Fold this sequence. Notes:
The chain is of the alpha/beta class. The protein contains eight helices and seven strands, in the order ααβαβαββαβααββα. It has a seven-stranded mixed sheet, with helices on both faces. Helix 5 links the parallel strand 4 (about 105-110) and strand 5 (about 130-140).
Amino acid sequence: MADPVVAEYARAAQRYDEKWAFYLEATTRETLKRMPMAPAARVLDVGCGTGELLRRLRAKYPDAVLAGLDPVAEMLTVAGEKLSGKEDLRIGYADSLPWTSASFDLVVSCNMFHYISHPIDALREMARVLRPGGTIVLTDWCDDYIACRICNLYLRLTNRAFYKTYKQAECLALLRQAGFEDVRLDRYKISWLWGLMTAVVTTKKKRAAEAAQEEEP
């Protein structure tokens, strides 16, 4: 059976940026404000879509090592057209990331989480590819706002690609369940009805004894 997310966004790819310009601007702006970015950071964008967040990162941080994952080849084609060509763009899913452990300083996901049917698996995969002490930044719709709540109910009934949105407390519970302790979670409006939330998660640095034990043959 075809993945409904892939089917929907393959059709939408060429017009996606134009159709959702306000939404993209607001979500990428708010996500970038909360990312602890360094000039040469290694960054993975999970669910990168048409690459708008990666494009803005590349423009501001030319020395950064950027990667993006998305299940929709057509979306990645659009992303490749607006990026520099140095980015590592791959087809795949959030619960099975095709990179080795500790590959990135920062893992970010913007407006993708409401499509994930196995959120704990995805969160643990993000942690796996992150270096010790690295940061995960997740932005998504917030079901505490009435427009998001109505949209959530409607899409769950009518759209096979959609999974669900979360309230702030539910999102925090998911992050705790995935094993994260150092979490900052903000919610905010981007219009008079619509609201988002961004979680910033800092993973623990390995203690020297743990690192030495892992290196033993």
